[in-house]
Design a protein that fits this description.
Helix content is 69%, strand content 0%. With 179 residues, the chain is mainly alpha-helical.
């Protein structure tokens, strides 16, 4: 992490989000010059800027930054984890703006991307399901319930197969073996 990013993060912890935005902009300019605009290094900083803008209450700027971030992150190859993170952040931003129908679509997109990722993706998949559930509930979908305490307890994780309606209808491996 650069000194500028550390200072910006410190400003955010002091709730000085507008000042943090200026530093994140400066850092983004530096990273863009050094690594190129379509680099993970530059886009990570752009993500921090979008978050700071949202916290500073400049929603229109945050939305434009998130749109740029989404467009650029989708161009990256081999960075699906980062792209999924950006999509999830965009969904949370939409939720914070009360745009729940859009948020549901975005969280579904994140979920689909995360389902395709290899390896131990459980923690991130759980978060995607939880964010989708919150957006659905905000729309009044009371049929989708979840236990938030259970999702925070690592000994009893929130597993996606608890909510098969969010996923395709292929049986899980243990279900296929039982048939």
């Amino acid at each position: 992490r650069s000194t500028v990013n550390v200072l910006a993060a410190d400003l955010q912890s002091q709730r000085k989000h507008a000042e943090a935005c200026e530093l994140f902009r400066e850092e983004f300019t530096l990273r863009k010059a050094r690594f190129g605009v379509e680099s993970v290094e530059a886009l990570q900083c752009l993500s921090l800027l979008a978050s700071a803008q949202a916290k500073a209450g400049v929603s229109a700027e945050a939305e434009m930054t998130y749109q740029d971030l989404l467009r650029l992150s989708r161009k990256l190859t081999g960075q699906e984890q980062f792209t999924a993170q950006v999509i999830g952040e965009w969904g949370l931003f939409l939720q914070s703006q009360g745009r729940f129908e859009e948020a549901v679509a975005v969280h579904r997109e994140e979920l689909e991307l995360r389902k395709k990722m290899p390896g131990d993706n459980g923690r991130f998949l759980n978060a995607a399901v939880l964010n989708l559930a919150r957006a659905l509930q905000a729309l009044g979908n009371k049929s989708f319930s979840f236990d938030e305490d259970r999702t925070r307890n690592q000994e009893a994780p929130f597993w996606p197969h608890d909510h098969k309606d969010l996923f395709d209808q292929r049986p899980l491996p243990e279900e296929a073996a039982a048939e």
